[in-house]
């Protein structure tokens, strides 16, 4: 009777393993689609800063026409 708890470990291990597999699948699919890991908690401020950074990088790498 002392090993009855082990009967519950197999299904719990399967459930925990499948949760890990699903989480990793989401991570790798998102990284393959977008080229980088997903930013957790991405709010409007973060989106605005990403747009600003992208615009600044494009401006810095663009050839200057002031010559």
From TrEMBL:
One of its GO terms (cellular component) is mitochondrial inner membrane. It is a single-pass membrane protein. GO terms for molecular function: oxidoreductase activity. It holds the Pfam family MWFE. Keywords: Electron transport, Membrane, Mitochondrion, Mitochondrion inner membrane, Oxidoreductase, Respiratory chain, Transmembrane, Transmembrane helix, Transport, Ubiquinone. This is NADH dehydrogenase [ubiquinone] 1 alpha subcomplex subunit 1. Belongs to the complex I NDUFA1 subunit family. It is found in: Mitochondrion inner membrane. Its main location: mitochondrion. Accessory subunit of the mitochondrial membrane respiratory chain NADH dehydrogenase (Complex I), that is believed not to be involved in catalysis. Complex I functions in the transfer of electrons from NADH to the respiratory chain. The immediate electron acceptor for the enzyme is believed to be ubiquinone. It comes from the Eukaryota. It comes from Rosa chinensis (China rose).
């Amino acid at each position: 009777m002392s090993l009855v708890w082990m009967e519950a470990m197999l299904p719990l291990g399967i459930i925990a393993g499948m949760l890990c597999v699903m989480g990793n699948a989401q991570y790798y699919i998102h990284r393959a689609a977008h080229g980088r890991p997903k930013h957790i908690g991405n709010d409007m401020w973060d989106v605005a800063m990403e747009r600003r950074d992208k615009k600044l990088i494009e401006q810095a790498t663009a050839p200057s026409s002031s010559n």
